[in-house]
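The following record pairs a protein chain with its ligand, zinc ion.
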Amino acid sequence: MNASLLLLLGCILAAWFANTLSSLLDARRLSPAPPQGLEDIYDPEEYARSQRYARARLRFGALAETWDTLLVAGFLILGGFPLADELARQAAQGLGLAGAWAETATGLVFFAMLGLAHDLAGLPFSLYHTFVLEDRFGFNRTSPATFVLDRLKGWLLAALIGGPLLAVILWLLRVFGPGAWVGCWAIAAAVSLLLAYVAPTWILPLFNKFSPLEDDALRADIEALAQKEGFALSGLFVMDGSRRSAKGNAFFTGLGRRKRIALFDTLLEKMNRDEILGVLAHEVGHWKLGHIRTRILIGILRLGALLWLLSLLLGWNTLFADLGLPASGHAGLALFSLLLAPASLLLGALTNALSRRHEYQADRFAARATGAPLALSSALKKLVRQNLANLTPHPLSVFLFHSHPPLPERLAALDALAENADQP
Ligand SMILES: [Zn+2]
């Protein structure tokens, strides 16, 4: 085993370790009785159930993560990358291409093979997650047909959008060398902007049905709120989340005139008028405070940093030689994604920290816009009960993985707002 191989394995294991440690710490905080001060969110029986659900999910997550890590490590140690590269080269040769075109085709076949194999290796876990784990706790609404169609649509989208983008990047790197990373960045950034723009109208409807809100009285209330905050109501939709799960949610997506707020039908079922208005105002807050724009901008900057690092890696000949791989854009990208696993975790943690801040800001915005901080609290409590959310994640897992603050902290912030509003 040489130094490059050890380095790659070390990176994969470091990411696995962080994941597993955070799951273990989360599991140690589970308890059958609700913590003091939170008794009004769950009744004792429901609370115990939420803890059983959290334990089952943590166990499943750790197992799936370990399986994936073993798979990638085994692939690396047994020479999977040189083999996949060789097979891809043979396939590309069969197409009768030459030069940069042959290299680009090799890269596309290489990633198609690896992507498909990786997806299939994880399939038993996806099946178990949807049809056993989620089902056992009464959440699953996904039919086998929906499950199969979702996968096929996912593959098709990856091929139609990811394929051409990957081809352009590999071709540019091959023809112009590592310095082409700036061009690659410009193109990838343009594609990600375009995707953010068209996702609400072209991509999300492939997976869900979006229909206008039918309740006229509620619509009038929402209209008043939207008008006050300058949000065009044409962007408000009800989404059939119940097609896949009994869990409730709401989200904001899109840019410019194509922006949309989607309320899950499962959420509308459980909430009263004031609670729905609170949730809606929170989503309008994300729009008004420019959170989506910030998120997209950060994604683009991150992409630039990654492509620049990749351009440096492409000159690292020892790495390719140690693994028995010809140096190429596609092999560089694949190895890079492994080397970067620990850095990705940290980058993810930074993004999550920003996202948690945005949540507090959107909550504050909603409290002010509706003048009813406690209606939003009540909506959040209902959502937590509906989704059996775990109220006591460990700070390490919040830091690494949570895009939303733990509910007790969000409620405390809203309570403080309500108290301040009471004072003359
Ligand atoms: Zn939010």
